[in-house]
Amino acid sequence: MATMLEGRCQTQPRSSPSGREESLFHRSITDLGFCNVILVKEENTRFRGWLVRRLCYFLWSLEQHIPPCQDVPQKIMESTGVQNLLSGRVPGGTGEGQVPDLVKKEVQRILGHIQAPPRPFLVRLFSWALLRFLNCLFLNVQLHKGQMKMVQKAAQAGLPLVLLSTHKTLLDGILLPFMLLSQGLGVLRVAWDSRACSPALRALLRKLGGLFLPPEASLSLDSSEGLLARAVVQAVIEQLLVSGQPLLIFLEEPPGALGPRLSALGQAWVGFVVQAVQVGIVPDALLVPVAVTYDLVPDAPCDIDHASAPLGLWTGALAVLRSLWSRWGCSHRICSRVHLAQPFSLQEYIVSARSCWGGRQTLEQLLQPIVLGQCTAVPDTEKEQEWTPITGPLLALKEEDQLLVRRLSCHVLTSVGSSAVMSTAIMATLLLFKHQKLLGEFSWLTEEILLRGFDVGFSGQLRSLLQHSLSLLRAHVALLRIRQGDLLVVPQPGPGLTHLAQLSAELLPVFLSEAVGACAVRGLLAGRVPPQGPWELQGILLLSQNELYRQILLLMHLLPQDLLLLKPCQSSYCYCQEVLDRLIQCGLLVAEETPGSRPACDTGRQRLSRKLLWKPSGDFTDSDSDDFGEADGRYFRLSQQSHCPDFFLFLCRLLSPLLKAFAQAAAFLRQGQLPDTELGYTEQLFQFLQATAQEEGIFECADPKLAISAVWTFRDLGVLQQTPSPAGPRLHLSPTFASLDNQEKLEQFIRQFICS
C-alpha cells in the first residue's frame, strides 16, 4: 500500500502565502481566460487610495446592482392557475363566486413559505461577509471568462435563465449566487431543500432570494391542499420566468444523502419550468448546466448517521467559525472551479427529445434470462430504471412529461460530466491503485485526462501540487520520511481507503467508456484464460467484434443508469461502437484483419444509402441493432505494448468498487435475513461489506451508497421482490433465486467483469 514521493519536499523553506499561491497557479493562467471570482482589489471599485484598499470588500458590496423586486402576492392571486382552481373550473376547486378571505390567507401563507422579496441591504451585507469568509476558506475560485460571457450573452437574449447544477456541498447554493451577482446578473433565486435547513435558516435564505417547496405540494393528486399549493408554486415560477430573474435548481440530492443521485425535489422544480414553457407563459427558457468542483468538499459530513440532519442557523454559524479557526494560519486552503456549459433552448430540447423515444424493458427482462443461462441473445433495448421517487408535483404532469423531465436531468448531468478534475482526485486514484512514483504518475494521469478533452482545476509547479494535495488528504494518509528528500505515502486502512475511493470516483467520467470496455474484455477472457495468466497469453486470443458488443451490452445493462448517463437518443449500438473506438484509440486493442473482412478502420456504412438516408432525425432506435451483423468478420487482439497491462488494470479498477460490492451482495444472499424492509436489508448488507473489508482489506467497497445501489439493482433484476405490508413495503428473496445454484450463477455473472 506504500507509494513513493520523490523529491526534496521537506527541505524546502517555508514560503509566503502569495508565493505559495503563485507556485500553485501561474500568473499566466489569466491569459487563458480564467479569473478568481473571490479576488476583489482596489481596481474592482470606483475609488482609489490606501483607505479603499482596506475597505475594498465593503465598497465592492455597495456597488453591486440589485434589481428591485416588487411584491407579487396580487399577481400570484390573479394568475390563471390559481384563479381556475379557486373558481371551480378545475377539479378540486372551491366553487363559483367570490374568493373567501380564508382561501386568500391560505394562498398568502403558502406564498410566504415559498419565497420572500429579497432585501437589498441584507444581500449586500451578506455578500460582504461571504466574500471575507470565502477568502479565508478558499485559495481561489476559478471561472473561465469565456463561459461567463456566454451566459451573459444568453441573458441579453430576453429569455429567462434557468441554471441546472450538480450538488457537491451546501456551499454551492451560496457560492453560485455570489458569483452571478459579482458578474452583474442580479440576484439568483435558489431552489433550496427545506429538509436541509432549519426554520430560522429558511427565513434568512428567503430574504436572500431562496425558494422552498411547501410540504403541501407533495400531497396526493386529489387533495385540495395539494392542488392549491402546486398552483401557487406554479404561479411563482411563472412570475419569476416572466420577470427574467435567473433561477438555480440542483439536480442531485444534497451531500451526504443516501439515495438516488437524481433529486426528486430538483425534478419537481424542473417540471414547473417545463409546464410554464409548454403552456406559453414564456416562449422559451435557456437552460445553463453548471458544475462546481472542489479539491476538498468543505462541509462533507463525517458521521453518516447525522448527514441528513437539517442545518440550523446557529449550527451553520458555528461551522463557519470552526472553518475559520481551522484555517487560521493554515497554509493550505481549498481550491474550486466553476464550470458553465453551453446554454440551450428548453423548447428545442422538448421537440428533439420526443422524436427519438423508443421502447424500454426492465432489467429483469433484459438480464435475468442471460444470468440464469436460459438464453444468450442480449436485447438491444433501452433499460427502464427509475430510482428517483416521483413526488406529488411531478405526478401532476402527464406521463410523457415526467419522462421528459427525467431525461432532461440526465442530459444536463451528462453535459457537465466534463467539468474540471481536481488534484486530490488524481492523487487519491494513484494512492488507491498503488502507483509507485507519484511525481511521474501524477503528470502521466494529468496528460491522459487532458488528451480526452477534459479539464483540470489546477496548474502550477508539479511538486507544489503534490504537496497541496497530500496536505488536504493528510487525515487519510501517513507520510513517512525514509531518506533525505523522499517520502513514503501510505493510505490509512479502513475509512481512509473508503474516502480515497470516493474521491477517485470523480475520475470515472473521464475514463468511463474505456473502463466499461476493459471490464467487458475481462469478461470475455474470463472463460478462456486463467485470471492470473500472463498478458502475452491473453494477447494470443482473437476477440470478435460481436462478442465484444455482447459483453459491453451486458455490462451496460448491469451498471446503474445514473452512473452511465448515456447521451440523449444514443442507441446501444452507438455506445458499443464508441467504447470499442476508445479501446482502439488508447492502444489496448489492435485490429486483426482476416481474409475477406472489411478493414476495422473503415468507419463508413456499407448500407448507408438504403438504411439511414431515409430516416427522420433521431430515428436510430429500432434497426441499429441490425448493424451488429456487419461485425461478424472483424477481430481484435490485446496489444502487447509495454504500458498496456498496467493501463488495462487501471481501467478495470475504476469500476471494481461497484462491481465488487455487487458480487459481495450476491454472496450475501445466502446469509441475509429476509424478509426485511429495504432500509433494514441495506443496513445488513453494509455491515457485511464492512466485515468483508476487515477480512480482505477491500475497504473501497464498504460504502453505504454502494450497498443501496446493489439492493436496488437486485430489486430491478428480480432477485429481490417487494411486497406490501402494514408496516410498509418489505423485501424478500424471489423464488427464482431461492436456490443456491441460481445465486452462484448471479455471483459468477458479476465476477466475470472484475479484474483481480
Name the descriptors.
48% helix; single chain; alpha/beta; three-stranded antiparallel beta sheet; nine-stranded mixed beta sheet; 756 residues; 11% strand; 30 helices; globular
Brief description of this entry?
This protein is α/β, with parallel strands linked by helices and 756 residues long.
Count of helical regions: 30
The rounded Rg comes to: 27 Å
Given as residue ranges, the uncertain stretches (5+ residues, pLDDT < 50) are: 7-16, 300-307, 603-626
Biggest beta-sheet profile: 9 strands, mixed
Instruction: Let me know the number of strands.
Output: 20
Shape: globular
What portion of residues is helical?
40-55%
Mean pLDDT: 82
The structural class is alpha/beta
CA-CA gap between termini: 16 Å
Strand content: 5-15%
Question: What does it look like?
Answer:
The structure is a single chain. The model is unreliable at 7-16, 300-307 and 603-626 (pLDDT under 50). Helix 10 crosses helix 11 (264-278), helix 27 crosses helix 28 and helix 28 crosses helix 29 (704-717). This protein has 756 residues and is α/β, with parallel strands linked by helices. It starts with a strand and ends in a 5-residue tail after the last helix. The chain is built from 30 helices and 20 strands.
Topology readout:
Elements: E1 3-5, H1 17-24, E2 34-36, H2 50-63, H3 73-78, H4 80-86, H5 101-114, H6 120-137, E3 138-144, H7 145-155, E4 161-165, H8 172-182, E5 189-192, H9 199-207, E6 210-212, H10 224-243, E7 247-250, H11 264-278, E8 286-294, H12 313-327, E9 334-340, E10 344-345, H13 346-354, E11 360-362, H14 363-371, E12 382-384, H15 392-395, H16 399-415, H17 423-432, H18 438-451, H19 462-472, E13 477-483, E14 486-491, H20 495-504, H21 508-525, H22 535-540, E15 543-544, H23 545-558, H24 561-564, H25 572-585, E16 589-592, H26 608-611, E17 635-638, H27 644-668, E18 676-677, H28 678-696, H29 704-717, E19 720-723, E20 730-733, H30 740-751
Parallel strand pairs: 3-9, 4-7, 4-8, 5-6, 5-7, 11-12
Antiparallel strand pairs: 1-14, 2-3, 8-9, 8-10, 13-14, 15-17, 16-17, 18-20, 19-20
Helix pairs in contact: 2-6, 4-10, 5-10, 10-11, 11-16, 17-18, 17-20, 21-23, 21-25, 21-27, 23-25, 27-28, 27-29, 27-30, 28-29
